[in-house]
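Re: the 141-residue chain
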Amino acid sequence: MKDIFHRLRSGELVHLHDPEFYRVDEVVNRTLALSPSLNNSTSTDKIREKLGEIFGHPLDKSTTVFVPFHTNFGQSIKIGKHVFINHACSFLDMGGITIEDHVLIGPRVNLVTENHPLLPSERRGMLCQPILIKQNAWIGA
């Protein structure tokens, strides 16, 4: 059986009562605990450092992210070089978010990979689809 993170990223319906869902909750709780120090950072270097902790890998020094920045998960975000992300963006990334090089993202942009089924009987499940933002894209406010 594939682990829950693979199933989420591959678009399978994952119910909140799935026996592995506690693993998702662990990552979410860790991210929530790290978020206040991220959003109280006073330099772009410190922001990159804190995002590296949340993402589980370092950000390139050519990338700039302004706070506040919000994510519910964080470990499925990949950001390239020379990327600029403006204030108050929110990335819900359980399905995976990849941002290639030289991308500009305006303030208050929301990238959401997660959804719920329309049928009420299945609504307590999650359906995720990845987001890929190609090189040189610009997403305005």
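Residues 21-39 form the longest helix (19 residues).
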